[in-house]
Amino acid sequence: MERKIRGWSLVVAIVCFIIVAGLVIWVLKFSTEQPPLKDSSEFREVIQELNTPEKLQSYIEENFKFDKSHEASPACSPEEFFYEKEGDVRDFSVFSSYVLDQHGYQAKIVWFIYIDETGRKGADIVTLFQDKDGGLKYMRLLMFDEGVIKMGIFQIESLEDLLAQEEKRINCQIIEYGLLPAGSTSFDFLRFKLL
């Protein structure tokens, strides 16, 4: 009788081991699978169509949503943002600078840190570009409540003029600023500057 119990115990142990091993393999298989890659041809086609700042502005306003929760994660690449269709100010500037630069507008991302009228530190990001007529302009999010997007395009004389317009618009003092290449997603340093 004792031999039968040991035999059944061994069989039960082997069956349990096989079941557990199978579950582990199944979990590992599905947890390490990457999502399927998007077809980049749609991204490239749309980027080619957005060949003026005004077309880009309209496309963003009609197709994207603002989502403040993106601030907790790294900025999206232009292609990721294109497919996700939502993001924060960094994502909008990365995308708009990339698209404008692809069409020869010599775009840059301008970041700045400011102190508002209450003494609170903040940061913002806009897209600076040279228009086809040689003049400087910048593009920024103006309104982004409840997913509604409104972009603005502003004529400026210089980078200093851009900063002065933003100080007036936000009612703040800009204490530091810098430039990043078009399409750059390197914003991690801003978290430390805001401390």
Which fold name corresponds to the CATH topology of the largest domain? Answer: C8orf32 fold
How would you spell out the order of helices and strands?
A: HHHEHEHEEEEHEH
What spatial order of strands do you see in the largest sheet? Answer: 6-5-4-3-7
- Uncertain segments of ≥5 residues (pLDDT<50)? 26-36
Helix content percent band: 40-55%
Q: End-to-end span in angstroms?
A: 73 Å
- Enumerate how many helices there are, as a single number: 7
Q: How many distinct folded domains? A: 2
Q: Indicate the CATH class of the largest domain.
A: Alpha Beta
Percent in strands:
15-25%
The biggest sheet amounts to:
5 strands, antiparallel
Structural class: alpha+beta
Named at the architecture level, the CATH assignment of the largest domain is Roll
Mean pLDDT level: 84
* Total count of strands: 7
* Large-scale geometry: globular
The Rg value, from CA coordinates, equals: 25 Å
Write out key terms for the chains shown.
alpha+beta; two-stranded parallel ribbon; 2 domains; 195 residues; C8orf32 fold; 5-stranded antiparallel sheet
Provide a descriptive summary of the structure in words.
This protein is of the alpha+beta class and 195 residues long. It is built from seven helices and seven strands. It has two domains: 33 residues; 154 residues, Roll (C8orf32 fold). The strands form two sheets. A five-stranded antiparallel beta sheet has the order 6-5-4-3-7, with helices on both faces. α4 links the parallel β1 and β2. The longest helix has 30 residues. About 6% of the residues have low confidence.
